[in-house]
């Protein structure tokens, strides 16, 4: 997992939160037992006390808007806005079926590259969930902790749709997906070249074989090979818990204020006839967050729209 170097002294303003006694995560049919991971990790529900209306809490913005006003890239699950000293975390529900649904909710995050011994940072992250094209919802500040992996049995209990989303994303993603395809190809080649060993490569053996995997071999990895790697348990997804620690009310108000549409004067020709502006191609950076996630978890399928869009 690639994580940018970040300072350790960030301080995040939060609002008051209130614990609910004996709270537990509500089970989701899509998780098929993985919710126990969150329970065992001590994830609880925190109610929220803020001076925002429901409409203000529900306000969304685009990834491009966030990058333009705070910094970082409009692509990538984890971003750091250096000028504002803010760590962001972006996730979509296509690959993560149990993300928080509202501010204060706990959740789980699936990760292709995480390490159980490596936390993202000691500080919480401003967490956004993708609701649709150009629509990212700030849910609060969350501590994200890698806790375990999805076992082979747990993976095989998931729906075909869940597994298809992940295998297809890994097959198509240009960065994090490529890294995973390289690992899968290196492991398969090692097993073919050392069939008499009847085992998978050790970590050192896998690293050595990865160095000799060509671009053509990486590109040859099929969706079926990726699925087999996960079905067999040789390749796994990591699970991270998302624990709510607070809500930055001033930050949400800033998002609302800065994303208000600005009235534009309509262009008028010298003869008094209004001119029509030509359509401009705009890349939709919000198609999916690419990077160390989902992907870290996260596929890029940037779409180009020939119609004009207002960047919120």
UniProtKB/TrEMBL annotation:
Segments carrying the region annotation (Disordered) are 286-312
Residues annotated as domain DUF6697: 60-258
**Could you name the domain of life of the organism this protein comes from?**
Eukaryota
What InterPro entries does the record tag this protein with?
DUF6697 (IPR046520)
Record's protein name? DUF6697 domain-containing protein
Print the organism lineage: Eukaryota, Fungi, Dikarya, Basidiomycota, Agaricomycotina
């Amino acid at each position: 997992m690639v994580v940018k170097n970040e300072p350790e002294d960030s301080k995040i303003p939060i609002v008051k939160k209130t614990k609910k006694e004996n709270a537990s995560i509500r089970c989701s049919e899509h998780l098929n037992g993985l919710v126990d991971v969150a329970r065992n990790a001590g994830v609880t529900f925190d109610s929220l006390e803020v001076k925002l209306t429901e409409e203000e809490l529900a306000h969304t913005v685009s990834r491009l808007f966030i990058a333009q006003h705070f910094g970082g890239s409009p692509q990538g699950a984890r971003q750091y806005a250096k000028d504002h000293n803010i760590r962001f975390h972006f996730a979509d529900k296509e690959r993560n079926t149990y993300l928080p649904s509202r501010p204060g909710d706990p959740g789980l995050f699936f990760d292709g590259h995480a390490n159980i011994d490596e936390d993202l940072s000691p500080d919480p992250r401003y967490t956004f969930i993708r609701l649709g094209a150009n629509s990212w919802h700030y849910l609060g500040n969350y501590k994200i902790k890698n806790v375990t992996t999805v076992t082979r049995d747990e993976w095989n209990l998931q729906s075909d749709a869940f597994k298809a989303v992940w295998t297809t994303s890994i097959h198509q993603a240009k960065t994090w997906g490529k890294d995973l395809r390289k690992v899968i190809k290196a492991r398969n080649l090692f097993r073919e070249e050392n069939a008499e060993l009847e085992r998978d490569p050790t970590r050192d053996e896998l690293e050595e074989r990865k160095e000799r995997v060509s671009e053509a071999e990486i590109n040859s990895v099929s969706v079926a090979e990726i699925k087999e790697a996960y079905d067999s348990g040789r390749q796994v997804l990591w699970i991270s818990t998302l624990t709510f620690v607070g809500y930055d009310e001033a930050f949400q108000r800033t998002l609302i204020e800065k994303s208000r549409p600005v009235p534009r004067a309509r262009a008028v020709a010298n003869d008094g006839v209004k001119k029509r502006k030509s359509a401009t191609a705009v890349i939709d950076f919000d198609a999916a967050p690419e990077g160390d996630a989902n992907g870290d978890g996260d596929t890029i399928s940037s779409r180009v729209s020939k119609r004009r869009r207002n960047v919120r």
